[in-house]
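Continuing the series of single-chain predictions for the mutant panel. This is the parent chain; the variants come on the following pages.
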Amino acid sequence: MFSIALSDSAKLCPLEPWQAEEFLTHMDRARSNLDPWIPWASRSTDLASARAALQSYADRQAADAGRLFGIWRDGVLVGGVMFVSFNRNTGVCEIGVWLEKAAEGNGLISAAVSHLIDYAFDERGMSRIEWHTSPANERSNGVARRMGMRLEGTLREAFLHNGVRHDTEVWALLPSDRNR
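Parent structure:
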């Protein structure tokens, strides 16, 4: 299987529908940490819904419109990164991430996001990478800063989650930002 080393004990690999059982087990461990930020965390509650979440990204991959990767540490799925959207025609994509609490603080997300940024700009010729996050998600905002992204604005009450409207910050990175 294709994989990229993120550390001595962690790797980045495609996360696909055939891994739904492992994904569900991971979601069960991570749900309380992820639910405030990741809508499909609360929707992946059984094998069928977990498989559907993974299938939606497999369909995006087949259409060259998105992609999902898992992060495994010591052989256990602990999080992931994704191209939430990937539009080759406009040259704009969005990266998203998630991680179990127990795996935080080891640089896994930053390492994985760096690989996606390099791929988007260097191999696919994208013009803009976006990062959408809640203003309250300090860990996510920190990753955006470490990656050199700029906060471009806040979309007020743009995101409905669990019946509540939330603000969304939009961060972005352009190829020219990498040279600063």
